[in-house]
UniProtKB/TrEMBL annotation:
Catalytic activity, as annotated: N-succinyl-(2S,6S)-2,6-diaminopimelate + H2O = (2S,6S)-2,6-diaminopimelate + succinate
Originating species: Neobacillus citreus
Annotated family: Belongs to the peptidase M20A family.
Its EC number(s): 3.5.1.18
Protein name: Probable succinyl-diaminopimelate desuccinylase
Pfam assignment, any one: M20_dimer
Length: 422
């Protein structure tokens, strides 16, 4: 009889013994700029493939768009269950370098922190799953199933050429998936809200500005009225389906008791959030504008669909008597989740507790990620990775070294539980 606990403890001990190698790997990933846009993943993909090859691991390259490379490597056999570990190589642009306290591509380790763009989102997590994958190979751990490492180049701009591209072409399949996206220490994300981005264009009639408001028809003022209608989406009372009410409540608990600074944000789990992101209209101050475009980001809770939101918007905007068009773009998804008792969720959550000796549980995220694509293909998935959440996509991004090590321990242990347990 296989002693699963003994195998897991051996792997955890090995991560601890080799943690300097792990941190060096994560640091090296940060040192390679892989900003998206532009999205060129050539250099970082070559680095990762070379790292894996030194342990006898073959990597298959798939170019989904110009200089965007998806990497796939697998260990284990074809019999038994199949687990996917997934991460993205791209990071958001560093922005104004003068606003950083350090070089965003230094990968420096200082006072227990790993510094740089992508440290939290998600090169520390990416390094962790690469390290865990290679460690299982180095130690020649027998797996009664298959583990696939899927590394994608395009998540930060919507992910069209990453996970959804691989899934659509049938290049990755599995019984469960873990994305090493940033999360809190004890709380992986097992569900997320839906996304509905749209552009509203309001049409007016041009005229001389000196005759406004008696002449022409001002598209900007009509757009202002339309914006007020759009913002009422927040006030809608959504009936949350019974099957996810438990997840909502435990997520509120997390926001009250763990991420206490987020307590005030609890209502976003049950409401439609509305961000008026951009507005563009008019040509000159003395010309009555004939067009105004507004881009809006709405996140949808369980219990409401994009079609229902569109119908609500059209009804309310029609009442204004304005001329307009609504054009969806960018992120589009429905609220989605993986049940907490699914084997892949249990494998990660149970091993967070095994490693930390503390209670762990899955929660909702209020944004979106590649997880939605796996669920579209009926692959149960969750997200767990090292992060200092306040710095994600901001200046001075960083992550604690101890968090990187902890997550890598969870990754190696969870593979054993998931593949060995029937």
């Amino acid at each position: 009889m296989t002693d699963i606990t003994a195998i897991k403890q051996r792997l955890i001990d090995e991560v601890e013994a080799r943690k300097e190698e792990l941190i060096e790997l994560c640091s090296s990933l940060i040192k390679i700029p892989s900003e998206n846009p532009p999205g060129d993943s050539t250099e970082i993909s070559e680095f990762i493939a070379n790292y894996l090859s030194q342990y006898g691991l073959d990597t298959v390259w798939h170019e989904s768009s110009d200089k965007m490379y998806n990497l796939i490597s697998s260990i284990g056999g074809e019999e038994g269950k199949h687990l996917i570990y997934c991460g993205h190589t791209d990071v958001v642009p560093a922005g104004d370098l003068s606003k950083w306290d350090f070089d965003p591509f230094s990968g420096e380790v200082k006072d227990g922190w790993l510094l740089g763009r992508g440290a939290s989102d998600m090169k520390a997590g990416l390094g962790g799953i690469i390290f865990a994958f290679a460690l299982l190979k180095q130690l020649d751990v027998e797996l009664p199933g298959k583990l696939t490492l899927a590394i994608v180049p395009d998540e930060e701009t919507g992910g069209e050429f990453g996970v959804p591209w691989l899934l659509e072409k049938g290049l990755i399949k599995g019984d469960g998936a873990l994305i090493a996206e940033p999360s809190s220490r004890l709380n992986p994300t097992i569900g997320q809200k839906g996304s509905y981005w749209f552009e509203l264009e309001v049409f007016g009639e041009p005229g001389h500005g000196s005759l406004s408001p008696l002449a022409g028809n001002n598209a900007i003022t009509d757009a202002i009225a339309a914006i007020e209608k759009i913002r009422t989406l927040w006030d809608l009372k959504i009936t949350i389906p019974e099957e996810v009410q438990g997840l909502i409540e435990v997520s509120k608990k997390y926001m009250r008791e763990i991420e206490k600074e987020r307590e005030k944000f609890q209502p976003v789990l049950e409401r439609i959030t509305v961000n008026i992101g951009t507005i563009q209209g008019g040509t000159k101050s003395n010309v009555i504008p004939e067009s105004c475009k507004v881009q809006v980001d709405c996140r949808l809770p369980f219990g409401v669909t994009r079609d229902e939101v569109t119908a609500y918007l059209k009804k309310n905007l029609d009442e204004l008597g304005i001329r307009y068009e609504i054009r969806p773009f960018g992120f589009r998804s429905h609220a989605n989740y993986t049940p907490a008792d699914d084997p892949v969720c249990k494998a990660i959550v149970d091993n967070i507790s095994f490693v930390t000796e503390e209670e762990a549980y899955g929660v909702m995220q209020w944004a979106s990620s590649d997880a939605r694509h796996f669920r579209d293909y009926n692959i149960p998935v969750l997200q767990y990775g090292p992060a200092y959440l306040p710095t994600i996509h901001g200046y001075n991004e960083r992550v604690q070294v101890e968090d990187i090590v902890r997550c890598a321990k969870v990754y190696v242990a969870a593979v054993i539980d998931f593949l060995y347990q029937k």
